[in-house]
Design goal:
mainly beta, globular, Jelly Rolls, six-stranded antiparallel beta sheet
Length: 255
């Protein structure tokens, strides 16, 4: 083989390697979507039809109620005011007390909502935008050894809703539970802008038909995402900016 041919082949392989490396460049970051600390957001909890509320069952031992409980956090996160800790200065967790009148696949939905209600006094849903191209969602969940399980509910750019199974909570105390986002949930397209964002709609706690539902407590904290926030720069990328598109064309850029 001639020397010039060998050099040409090596050059092609080198340039191909550069192009490939550019395609797989990543900037993975862990981003907290919700920490339940302070008054920066509002969540509500809703349950299935067999949920035992105090209005319908005044003598129930575990009437349904929920609240953000202050000064509570997973100890694995460290102590507040510790410079090496992930715990916030004013920690809090979202907690719920509940019972159901029948064993089955009962559910509790933890839903982010706006601070103000609509004209009918109903909560306004507040989907949480997940930045970048997310790979994994996780949260801290406190279990009391019931064989219940958790799911994330996310919506893609097409408006399709997906259930992502997180894991069982049949243990005692705090654990960090997470799940990879399946590849069949689209997070990008070949068009510009390529990124298509997901939205977190709610977290769901499910009971099983073979488990007691006479009364329990559940807490959760710090919902996070592991996501790739890298974007390939190109000349004219500002023309794909949603704000620019809205200003010039009066239409909404797909996200």
């Amino acid at each position: 083989m001639k020397r010039g041919t060998i050099v040409s082949i090596l050059l092609v392989l080198f340039l191909s390697g550069v192009a490939f490396a550019d395609e797989v460049t990543t900037n993975m970051q862990s981003v907290v979507l919700e920490d339940f600390d302070g008054d920066n957001s509002r969540w509500i909890v809703r349950g299935g039809k067999f949920l035992a509320t105090e209005e319908e069952y005044p003598d129930v031992d575990f009437p349904f109620e929920y609240q953000v409980v202050p000064d509570v956090w997973p100890e694995a996160m460290g102590q507040p005011n510790d410079s090496n800790s992930d715990a916030p200065d004013s920690p809090g967790v979202l907690g719920v007390q509940a019972s159901f009148t029948r064993r089955c696949y009962n559910w509790l939905e933890f839903i982010p909502v706006e601070d103000e209600e609509d004209e009918n006094g109903e909560p306004v849903l507040r989907p949480i935008t997940i930045p970048g191209r997310p790979e994994r969602l996780d949260l801290w969940a406190w279990g009391s050894n019931y064989t219940y399980y958790l799911e994330f509910l996310v919506r893609d750019y097409r408006g399709l809703v997906h259930n992502i199974r997180v894991g069982d909570v049949n243990y005692a105390g705090w654990r960090n539970l997470g799940a990879r986002i399946p590849n069949n949930i689209p997070r990008s397209v070949r068009f510009v802008p390529a990124r298509r964002q997901l939205e977190l709609l709610k977290v769901i706690l499910w009971t099983r038909p073979d488990e007691s539902v006479a009364g329990f407590h559940f807490y959760m904290d710090q919902i996070k995402v592991l996501t790739d926030v890298f974007e390939n720069p190109f000349d004219g990328e500002g023309l794909a900016n949603p704000e620019f598109v809205q200003e010039v064309w009066g239409s909404e850029q797909p996200q």
